[in-house]
Amino acid sequence: MTFRFLARRKARDAVTDSSTPVWLVVGLGNPGPSYAGHRHNIGYLVNDELASRMRGSFRAHKSGRSDVVEGRLGAPGSDAPRVVLARPRSYMNEVGGSVKALATFYKVPPERIIAIHDELDIPFDTMRVKLGGGDNGHNGLKSMRSSLGTGDFHRVRVGIGRPPGRQEVADFVLSNYSTTERKVVPFTVDTAADAVESLIAEGLERTQQRFNS
After folding, report:
1. What domains lie within the chain, and their CATH numbers?
2. Sorting pLDDT into bands at 50, 70 and 90, what band is 80?
3. In CA terms, which of 12, 16, 145, 157 is 20 to 30 Å from 102?
4. pTM for this one?
């Protein structure tokens, strides 16, 4: 067997093993290179960082609706939490169906789903972590709530701030970060990935104490 095959089988076995629960971490964004640098795609960037920490590569899920990385997140060892990272292939306003399909396949209840998304009402370079709540006009969250039948999933809310002047919100979220912001984004992504790890390993209360700046 090749090393690559063994690595893939090990990652698969880590998720199919039923001894510990699975967490589904959904990075919200729009698929395709034309959207890659947009403020709306911060969830994709955070999941890319988490995939790097898991030493995994995204591959097509058998549902055909998402790309996933399966494995364990955290310090090496059998006690590391089992995690599925997901990048839905659907556009933001239709993402719920993709998330529902994964949650059903991996038998993940809403309370073990984490959505990573951009947040207009939080200043740039700050973040909040919470469980449940409204959609606040975010189409990805709205679609997830509709498909899952509940909004009681965790959210890692990465602040992008409000658009300047009279710029429309839709234009703002579907635009690239400014030159100054791009220098900060890698640190923001790293911190948001830390928050996801903390949420899974340490729970909501301790994560909020550390990251709700």
Report:
1. 3-211 (3.40.50.1470)
2. confident
3. 157
4. 0.89
